[in-house]
Amino acid sequence: MNPFLRLWDWLHEPVPVLRLALIRIAAPLAILGFMAGRLAHADEWIGDQGFRVPDLGGDWRQPLYVPALPAWGAWAIASIMVASGLACALGVKTRWSGLTFAATLAFVAVADRLAAFTVSKMSPAVVIALAVGPAGSRLSWDAWWRRAHGSKLPRKLRPAVSLRFLQLLPVFIYSSSGIAKERGDWLKVPLVLWTQLHDSYQTSLSFFLAEHIPGWAWTLMQGLVLMFEMGAPLWFGWSRTRHLAFLFGVGMHLMIGLMFGPVLWFALLMMAVLIGGYAPLSWLAPIDALADRVERRKRGTVPATTEVTS
């Protein structure tokens, strides 16, 4: 079969909407957690009360200059971000709240490039994918409202290119990270991972582990991480290794969040995408049952799809 046709079929085959709903609930909360420290000082962050990089007049190092907002404008953006992010997580007017949330995230990412980290840069893409897909059709206020007003039960399986995008996103992140590590020192210096435990992000757990785990074990873990990231397209693409790759990825981000303090929110965001995109469907069965109750099944109605498949 033509590989392009196979790709087209894979992108457009029906998938469990519940996967998108789980990411819609968890991802905005992780993003808002990351933004919380900045939102508390919005007038200094994106407003005219704090330091701003001056306009460099079209210099190639500053392709876009966004002037500081007045204090009231900065607080307005912060308020809209929080309100739309929470609304998106709850599934209230999901499409519009998601697009509004994504717009505020994109604005703050370009307004203060010095404070733009990985979460800042990937969040708009994640939220746009949720907004344009059927992420609000299950486990949401929207789903409850439609059923309360007599609408049919939502379909459990729907084509969702946005879910495929979110499934591919961590694979591309891992593979590009692995290539960068391979070109750097990860194959040359056996204790790169161990040395990273001693930077400014160190936590009590990372200090304890660095002190008690022998050096050869860190070298082994360094090799496993490199092998996982460089081989991510294979591990996630092959059905026989997909669940193992999912578990390794979640475990890796769990340890990153515990050992590298401020990176916690990035770890939670990546775990949300991994769990929504790759968790075995048998693990999601209790959540699927909860969604059925939220959708208020009425007497005489039959679910559009009674079985969830991958």
List the helices and strands and how they pair.
Elements: H1 3-12, E1 14-16, H2 17-39, H3 42-45, H4 71-90, H5 94-111, H6 118-132, H7 141-148, E2 157-159, H8 161-183, H9 192-196, H10 204-212, H11 215-230, H12 232-237, H13 239-259, H14 264-278, H15 285-294
Antiparallel strand pairs: 1-2
Describe, in plain words, how this protein is organized in 3D.
This protein is an all-alpha fold and 310 residues long. The protein contains 15 helices and 2 strands. Helix 2 (17-39) runs antiparallel to helix 6 (118-132) and helix 4 packs across helix 5. It is globular, with a radius of gyration of 22 Å. It starts with a helix and ends in a 16-residue tail after the last helix. The relative contact order is 0.14.
Question: TL;DR of this structure?
Answer:
By secondary structure, the protein is mostly helical.
